[in-house]
């Protein structure tokens, strides 16, 4: 049972459960006005003069309103931040032409660097002739060492 001039919990529940799409504009307007009046009456009516169910309903609605306000505040903050980030990103985004020019610049720098490294590598490497001469020298040295080793083994075996 509801207190005098107050909406009952059943009536409040019915209003919440019925989708707005199934209510006429007049019903929606009346519902909003009576809800505002019930909230005002609940705020000024002392707690000790409320029925237990009415007091419980007021506290529940107060908690729900507070949660809704907090959620709305968070939603507004998130929306503001999203707008701020969108504005920053659209202001700093290069055009397609600028992006292509930047890409070409980086590609040219990479090509120049690769060419420079190739030149340095070819200057520090010996020519084919130098490599052949060095290889022949090492081969001659190895052949002489093998010949000396064979002579030493032969001398040792013959007792000399």
Can you describe what's shown?
The chain is built from 5 helices and no strands. It is mostly helical and 160 residues long. The model has no long low-confidence stretch (mean pLDDT 78). Helix content is 81%, strand content 0%.
Quick description:
By secondary structure, the protein is an all-alpha fold. It is 81% helix and 0% strand. The chain has 5 helices and no strands.
Query: Biggest β-sheet, characterized?
Result: none
Count of alpha/pi helices: 5
> Distance between termini?
132 Å
**Low-confidence segments:** none
Helix coverage percent: over 70%
Strand element count: 0
Computed over alpha carbons, the radius of gyration is 46 Å
Structural class: mainly alpha
The chain-level mean pLDDT equals 78
User: Strand fraction band?
Assistant: under 5%
Please write the string of helix (H) and strand (E) elements. HHHHH
Which descriptor suits the 3D outline?
Answer: elongated
Oligomer: single chain
Features:
0% strand; 160 residues; mainly alpha; 5 helices; 81% helix
List the helices and strands and how they pair.
Blueprint lengths: L8 H9 L7 H20 L7 H41 L3 H29 L3 H31 L2
């Amino acid at each position: 049972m509801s207190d005098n001039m107050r909406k009952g919990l059943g009536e409040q529940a019915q209003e919440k459960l019925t989708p707005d799409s199934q209510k006429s504009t007049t019903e929606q307007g009346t519902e909003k006005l009576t809800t505002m009046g019930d909230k005002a009456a609940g705020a000024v009516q002392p707690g000790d003069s409320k029925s237990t169910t009415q007091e419980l309903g007021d506290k529940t609605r107060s908690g729900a309103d507070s949660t809704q306000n907090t959620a709305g505040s968070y939603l507004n903050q998130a929306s503001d931040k999203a707008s701020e980030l969108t504005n920053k990103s659209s202001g700093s985004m290069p055009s397609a032409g600028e992006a292509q020019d930047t890409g070409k610049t980086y590609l040219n720098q990479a090509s120049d660097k690769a060419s420079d490294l190739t030149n340095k590598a070819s200057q520090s490497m010996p020519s084919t002739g130098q490599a052949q001469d060095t290889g022949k020298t090492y081969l001659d040295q190895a052949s002489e060492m093998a010949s000396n080793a064979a002579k030493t083994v032969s001398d040792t075996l013959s007792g000399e």
